[in-house]
Amino acid sequence: DTGVSQDPRHKITKRGQNVTFRCDPISEHNRLYWYRQTLGQGPEFLTYFQNEAQLEKSRLLSDRFSAERPKGSFSTLEIQRTEQGDSAMYLCASSLEVSGEAFFGQGTRLTVV
Amino acid sequence: SQQGEEDPQALSIQEGENATMNCSYKTSINNLQWYRQNSGRGLVHLILIRSNEREKHSGRLRVTLDTSKKSSSLLITASRAADTASYFCATPKTDSWGKLQFGAGTQVVVTP
Question: Is A106 close to B42, i.e. CB distance below 8 A?
């Protein structure tokens, strides 16, 4: 499968714990995006990488959130000291061209209890 | 606030009928994209229409774009139960690395 893959698909964690999600984009795509989606809403932009450089972060991304793309390939999104409000679907997408078609992974659904 | 706003929020139709949903946006764009999302899954790209195009077809999908009204429509013809999903329009922010701005979507239910 050469699409965008995300791991894990589901994560249940207790409030205050740290969680880390992984995204493997399509191999030739140098652009990688993270989005967050809550029930009944469209995805909201979190952060953007071009190769290994994190070029933009949304104000939604508090200090508890950090994302990396160390070698310009896979990316990780870490949430520290999780809160119930962090419960959402976290989506990763990659693209080849700026403003072009984005390819999304299946998402990681986070539930904070 | 989100760039795209879809209308209606929900649509229920029977198999074989056509489904039409609309999207309005606020700022100038270089393209507009439509995505589909099945429940609990990721988004799948359906079609991209550029700002200099007025209409585009892909299979049973027809998209129109009216830049003067800042609106787009997605028509699904001869709908099937498998078309049941949420549909989102998205516009890439031209001054911000092409990040997509989504509306809240239209939830379409197609009953057999």
Answer: yes
